[in-house]
Amino acid sequence: MSSRFDLHSGMECPNANNKPVIKPTSNNISEIVSKFAKVCKFKSIGVFSSEIPTLHHLHKPIYNDAPVIENSSSSSAGGDDASEDTKKCYGDDNDACVSLEIMRVFDTVSALKLAYLQLQQAHIPYDPHKIVAADDKVVAELEKLCKFKREYKEKQYNRKVQLDASHRAEMEAKEVFLGKLKSQNSDKDSEILRLKQELEDLDMGNKAMEEKIKRIGLEKRKASSVLSVTKFQDVFRAASKSIHDFAKPLISLMKASGWDLDVAAKAIEDEAVYAKRSDKKYAFEAYIARRMFHGVRLTSYNLGDIMKSDDPIDALIENPDSEFAKFCQKKYLLVVHPTMEETFFGNMDHRTFILSGRHPRTEFYQLFAKMAKWVWVLQGSARAIDPDATLFSVNRGSNFCNLYMESVEEERGSSVISDDEERAKYKVEFMVMPGFRIGQTLMKSRVYVSKS
Fold first, then answer.
1. Is there a domain that residue 294 lies in?
2. Strands (DSSP E) along 139-183, which ranges?
3. Most exposed: 29, 104, 224, 388, by fewest CB within 10 Å?
4. Where in the sequence is the domain holding 384, given as residue range(s)?
């Protein structure tokens, strides 16, 4: 025999394939061995063969009623079939397979007990052949138990390996998921920063919009200030005064440049009769007014840009291509003759600036731009108040009519025409300022009259 067992010293499991014995790692082995010990509490006895007629009742399989096993004797005797069933059972992780394994173990222990008793029986009377046969049977049953033990350890090891692999796969999956969460968190942080920046931009845009709305509201209020008859009357007086204010420096420059004012006044109004020499200044005002209102067509347009600035030069510089800028350019070239500008300043820089689309910030041009502003507002606000608003003028030689006309002399508080009889004796020499009709309201035309 290749291997023998000392029943008093313990069992040594043969390892036919020289495979390393797998050490148990579970407490289940201790439980099974404990159960084995309870079953295998053998006593040393001596018996005669005549006293033991049969021992087959000790080899009755414990699991012979199990539906999986057809022949219990083949299971206890043939190791290969039991091994095959065990392999099949190990592949199924269920309670039935576990119960089947336990029954096989107890059946093998029962067979071992029977073999041990047969070994004792072979000693009395001493029969060497029976002793060897019984000993082989004991060894076979012990090998079977060791085989069950190895398979159990292998199964536990395989389960541990599978569990570790499952844990590693789960950890890898969770690490991948954690990486995705970190990436999503980073994306969310970037999105939060972007939204914060967008919110700041929106706040700045809202503030700019609020300022713009306030500015537009202010412009509308200023523009709406001329959209009433009362306000229009104020604009009319402002335009008349601005013409008078621009005529003063124009006359002063003519006088300083050596111009003959009498000849100049005669060139403007050839046949006019003046009550006194100083009244010739009205001829120059009439000259300016005729050119400023020449070709004017009453139409409604936006006055906000020009009304928002106290200094019209600011509006011209801010928007040099506006309709008001074109109006200033056209009217300056019409009012200020090239000869006048050259004699006034010794050059024609104003003209050159204006022709190039720019506007000089000189005192002379500022007075002109202020006058142009009020004339521009006057003609632009009439139709805004009344779509049927009209502008009218008075021809030379017309009889003075107090309903439509106003003498320039009345500005100084002197009434040259006291009653209807006196009024019929006065004729219009020339018109200084045209009149306007808005609804039922008339802005009288300012005229210079003389007694016929």
1. yes
2. none
3. 388
4. 227-451
Q: How far apart are CA 377 and CA 223, in angstroms?
A: 9
The answer, yes or no, to whether residue 142 has pLDDT greater than 70, is: yes
Q: Is the pLDDT of residue 15 over 50?
A: no
Task: Return the half-sphere exposure (C-beta side, CA atoms, 13 A cut-off) of residue 261.
Answer: 18
Which DSSP symbol is given to 444? P
Any idea what the Cα angle at residue 389 is, between residues 383 and 392, rounded to 5°? 125
β partners of residue 2: none
Nearest-CA neighbor of 412 among 448, 452, 374, 367?
448
CB 405 within 8 A of CB 428: yes
Q: pLDDT confidence of 422, banded at 50, 70, 90?
A: low
**Virtual torsion, Cα 49, 53, 59, 62, nearest 10 deg:** -140
Say if residue 254 is exposed, middle or buried (CB neighbours under 10 Å; 0-12, 13-18, 19+): middle
Same-domain pairing of 384 and 239: yes
> Among candidates 104, 101, 434, 92, which has minimal Cα distance to 285?
434
Please state the domain count of the chain: 2
User: Vertex 427, ends 422 and 428: CA angle to 5°?
Assistant: 130
> Which tokens hold the place of 293?
């209102």
Looking at the domain assignment, is residue 9 inside a domain? no
- Neighbour-count burial for 211-241, b at 16+ CB within 10 Å, e otherwise: eeeeeeeebbeebebbeeeeebeebbebbbe
Half-sphere exposure of 214 (CA within 13 A, CB side): 6
One domain for residues 178 and 254: no
Q: What is the arithmetic mean of pLDDT over 17-26?
A: 43
* Distance of alpha carbon 207 from the chain centroid: 18
DSSP state, 259?
Answer: -
Q: Which two tokens stand for residue 209?
A: 């919009």
Do 160 and 297 sit in the same domain of this protein? no
Does residue 76 lie within any of the structural domains?
no
* Angle between helix 229-256 and helix 261-268 axes, rounded to 10 deg: 140
Token output for 325: 């800028």
Q: Is the N-terminal amide bond of 125 cis, ω within 30° of 0?
A: yes
* Ramachandran category for residue 258: left, alpha or beta (phi over 0 → left; psi -120 to 50 → alpha): left
